[in-house]
């Protein structure tokens, strides 16, 4: 069993690796957590806290999108190691997000970053990819008993498909079953308000914050 000092050093190594977006070091630290019999939940809490530091650095302009991607990869890789060491009941029921880029829009970079950051924040994410028909979002949300539907649109010409998803939910009488978050280059808070979305993210950090708020995680 690791000493208190060893536990502290290992968790600090994990935190440092994530903040410095070093995937190999993050995996190594996570493996050390498991090997030394340290409570994996403590390490998962460190990952969650580190994601907040990453968000602050992004907001302040110290980090940019590439840093978010690399930090997200480090968090994902470390989380995968730790979750395998947890009893299933310790993981708790994850909130489910169905995410994708709307019909006729092939852009994926921003959506992929949001999906990755949602996973590292503890969400179960179903990524439908790009050029996704409105009916496909609704079908997958129903099949997975999703909590959130996240709709990405980079272009102004495809933005109306975000409205279409909400309208389809309304026509089926299931709008209240899901929180809808919209984002992408063409999407503003004003547009989100106009179409009746529950949340908006101008970037990946805001999208994750919106998802956490809407599901009562903060």
List keywords for this structure.
five-stranded parallel beta sheet; elongated; 218 residues; alpha/beta; Methyltransferase, Methionine Synthase (B12-binding Domains), Chain A, domain 1; 5 strands; Rossmann fold
Helical stretch tally: 10
Overall SS class: alpha/beta
Strand content: 5-15%
- The share of residues in helices is 55-70%
CATH topology assignment of the largest domain? Rossmann fold
Give the low-confidence spans. Answer: none
Mean pLDDT: 91
> Could you tell me the radius of gyration in angstroms?
18 Å
What is the makeup of the main sheet?
5 strands, parallel
Number of strands: 5
How many structural domains? 2
The N- and C-terminal alpha carbons lie at a distance of 33 Å
Instruction: Determine the CATH superfamily of the largest domain.
Output: Cobalamin-binding domain
**What is the approximate shape?**
elongated
- What pattern of helices and strands is seen along the backbone? HHHHHEHEHEHEHEH
* Order of strands across the main sheet: 2-1-3-4-5
- CATH architect. name of the largest domain: 3-Layer(aba) Sandwich
| CATH class category label of the largest domain | Alpha Beta
């Amino acid at each position: 069993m690791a000493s208190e000092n060893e536990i502290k050093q290992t968790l600090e190594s994990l935190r440092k690796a994530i903040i410095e977006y070093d995937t190999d070091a993050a995996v190594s630290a996570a493996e050390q957590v498991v090997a030394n019999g340290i409570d994996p939940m403590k390490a998962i809490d460190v990952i969650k806290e580190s994601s907040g530091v990453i968000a602050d650095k992004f907001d302040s302009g110290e980090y940019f999108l590439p840093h978010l991607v690399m930090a997200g990869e480090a968090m994902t890789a470390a989380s995968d190691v730790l979750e395998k060491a947890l009893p299933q009941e310790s993981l708790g029921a994850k909130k489910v997000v169905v995410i994708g880029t709307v019909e006729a829009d092939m852009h994926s970079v921003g959506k992929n970053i949001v999906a990755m950051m949602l996973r590292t924040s503890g969400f179960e994410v179903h990524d439908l990819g790009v050029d996704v028909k409105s009916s496909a979002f609704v079908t997958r949300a129903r099949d997975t008993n999703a909590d959130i539907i996240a709709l990405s649109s980079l272009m102004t010409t495809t933005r109306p498909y975000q409205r279409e998803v909400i309208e389809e939910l309304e026509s089926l009488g299931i709008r209240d079953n899901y929180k809808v978050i919209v984002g992408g280059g063409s999407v503003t808070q004003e547009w989100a308000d106009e179409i009746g979305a529950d949340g908006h993210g101008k970037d990946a950090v805001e999208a994750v914050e919106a998802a956490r708020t809407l599901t009562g995680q903060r």
